Automatic annotation (TrEMBL):
InterPro entries: MEMO1_fam. Belongs to the MEMO1 family. Signal peptide: none annotated. Coiled coil: none annotated. This is Protein MEMO1. It comes from Pipistrellus kuhlii. It comes from the Eukaryota. Pfam families: Memo (PF01875). NCBIfam families: AmmeMemoSam_B. PANTHER family: PROTEIN MEMO1 (PTHR11060:SF0).
Length: 206
């Protein structure tokens, strides 16, 4: 059996956001410094996945509420834009790269999810084509930088679920949401025109 570590590259760096680690770090710090921590610690957040030029300042409102001292696993749920899915899909890699530092996928949790028979596997090509999860990785890395060796991520690509499947996946994920050391990040478009009005259109925080 191969022990080769498979990595997903930061495929949208350099276009949807800067590929420069120092520049990206400064941008994120700037946006986060302008918002208040009012709902901390959040158990779940909903934030946009547009290019950072459009939504970087908006997403800061959500990530400001993350408490890295208690968060150990981060579930990132993003909708599929490029492939048709009637279920949810798990990544086939071990590491998600960001310009800040690499994020490790929690293979233990992935194993539990895979054993349910409810998930598909996405190819590396699908993974790297998709932006809905990737756009949350730099903010996740930044929010967790003080405990960067103490947490893992659980990326999940979400398809066009029927109402019955929504209930099934909701029941499955509810047991993980009940654990206060788990954080859920829900990736959303909200809309494609209103990010600049972030003072009134804000991400949801639970």
């Amino acid at each position: 059996m191969s022990n080769r570590v498979v990595c997903r590259e930061a495929s949208h760096a350099g276009s949807w956001y800067t590929a420069s680690g120092p520049q990206l770090n400064a941008q994120l710090e700037g946006w986060l410094s302008q918002v208040q921590s009012t709902k901390r610690p959040a158990r779940a957040i909903i934030a946009p996945h547009a290019g950072y030029t459009y939504c970087g300042s908006c997403a800061a409102h959500a990530y400001k509420q993350v408490d890295p001292s208690i968060t150990r696993r981060i579930f990132i749920l993003g909708p599929s834009h490029h492939v048709p899915l009637s279920r949810c899909a798990l990544s086939s890699v071990d590491i998600y790269r960001t310009p800040l530092y690499d994020l490790r996928i929690d293979q233990k949790i992935y194993g539990e999810l895979w054993k349910t028979g409810m998930f598909e596997r996405m190819s590396l090509q699908t993974d790297e084509d998709e932006h809905s999860i990737e756009m949350h990785l730099p903010y996740t890395a930044k929010a967790m930088e003080s405990h960067k060796d103490e947490f893992t991520i659980i990326p999940v690509l979400v398809g066009a679920l029927s109402e019955s499947k929504e209930q099934e996946f909701g029941k499955l994920f509810s047991k993980y949401l009940a654990d206060p050391s788990n954080l859920f990040v829900v990736s959303s478009d909200f809309c494609h025109w209103g990010y600049e009005y972030y003072r009134t259109i804000r991400p949801c925080i639970f």
